[in-house]
Every structure is written in structure tokens, then in C-alpha cells.
Amino acid sequence: MGRRVLLALAIVIAIVLAGYLVLRVILGGGQRGPGSSASASASTAPSADEARERVVVRSAVGRIERRSADGKWIQLRPGDEIGTSDQIRTAEGATASIDLGDAVTVDVAESTVLNVAELSSTLSRVRLDDGRIVSKVRKAKDYRFRVQVKGSDAVAETASGKFAVVRRGGGAVTVAAQEGAVNVKAQQQDVRVEAGEQSIVNPGSAPSPPSKIPTSLLLKLGKPPSRLRKREADIVGQTSPGAVVSINGVPMTVGADGNFTRKVALREGANDIVVVVEDALGRRKEAELPKITVDSRAPGVRGKVVW
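^ that's the sequence the OP posted. Answer follows.
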């Protein structure tokens, strides 16, 4: 009796063990080994063609945002992807670098608004709404990169090179070539700007003939009266041609020769006036005028009436 029980038990154990081995073999066939895991990872990585058609945030310092379909602004971080027709912006003090496929890198300066308009194997386009960008275009066969400017017919285009575009507050557009050459077009006229040169497109005008980029950034200011009766003052100054100027944070138009004048509203009492200039290369200067004090009250009249 004992032998029969032991024999039956052995048979049961053998059947269970065999079933376990068969089940393991069946399930094991569906598991990924080291080679299949690598294949899966490789299949999810973008191909070379896909990489050429992606806009990706390479780096970001400070706050950079993308406008979503519902109009909300969403913060972007390195590695995030941007779609064509998306609008992006950088906050004050923030900067970003964006890769347009594998052919173009665009450095976005602070307080800049930019739109990605098109990305293809032959042409990529961005639209600068306001601010400053620097684009580096790596040479590729039958490829062009184009920068358009909102509210202007100015266009900068190249197949290879590095160039900057700056415009703030609806004023002039300045295009400066740092490497290679860039074509600048407006009002159905175009000029070729070589490395070390810049061209200025004033509103409604054709591009200026190329000129050397100034070796330094100029800022000279006139001295307004320290005390005024009226609540406004004329701020007069001069900067390098092609630079952009803002007074107390408000951009203004600069003449072709770099001269500027702006009537600034003042409040009663002491007023601070800060002038900032910036050129296409990102050089920046700031100056603060002596305080202007406004006393618009009528002077008191004292006297003795003699009859």
C-alpha cells in the first residue's frame, strides 16, 4: 500500500514538473531577450528623416513658453517638441535654443516672440513677431532657411551661414551676417549681406546697402531740464545705426543715422528715465538720465492791493 502511494505521488510530481516546463517554454518564447529589447528601443527612436522634420527645444534658460490651441501659454523645457504654426516666447532674462530639424539652430533672445511657420527638406521658415534671434544654418543640398518679420515685408534668407535679425516695437528690421552671407529683401528689392555686414529695413523702405557692423555700440543722450512745469519731456539721443532703443521699457523707432527723439509722459514729482539700446549682435547698453521733477501747480500769487 505504501509503495502504491509513493508511486502515485511520484507520477503526480512528474506530471506537474513536465507541465511547468512546457508552460515555461511556451511563455518564454514571448519574452524579449537582450537583442529584442535593443530592437524595440531602436524602433522607437526617430529615423533620420523624422529628425529632419522635428522642431525641438535644445536648451532653455528662464521661462520659455508655447501657446497651445486653446490660447494658453505652456512652459517648455529642453527636449520638448514644437509644432509648425506654434507661437513661442521668452520672458525677460530668458533665452532658448531651438533645433529646426538637423539643418538649423535658432537662438532666441530674451523678450522675443517667434512663430515656426514651415519645416521641410527644402525650406524652413520662421516669423519673428518681436525681439531678436540668431540663426545658424548648416549647409545642405537644395535647402533654404527664411526669416520673415511680422508687420513688415522684410525677408532674410540663406542656404548656409549665421545671421541675426532684430526688431522691437514695430520699428526698423536689422539683419546682420556673422558667417557666410544672407540675402535681404523688401519692397521687391534685395541685397546680399556678407559676413561682418548688416542691412537695415525701415518701415515701407527697401533694404539699405550693406554696411560694416559697428565695432562698438554707441549711446549718447541729451540732457533735458531737471525741473519742468509740464508733464512731458523730449528725450533726445543717438545710437549706432541698426540698433533698437527703448525708453522706460517702451520700444521706439530710430532714424537711419541712429538719431532718435521721443516725447515721454511724466507724472507729478520726481521721474526716472532709463534708456536701453540693443543691436543685432546682442550687445546692450543702458543709461539713466538725472531725475526730472515735475511741478505743474500754478505759482502762488502774493501781493498787497493799494487803493
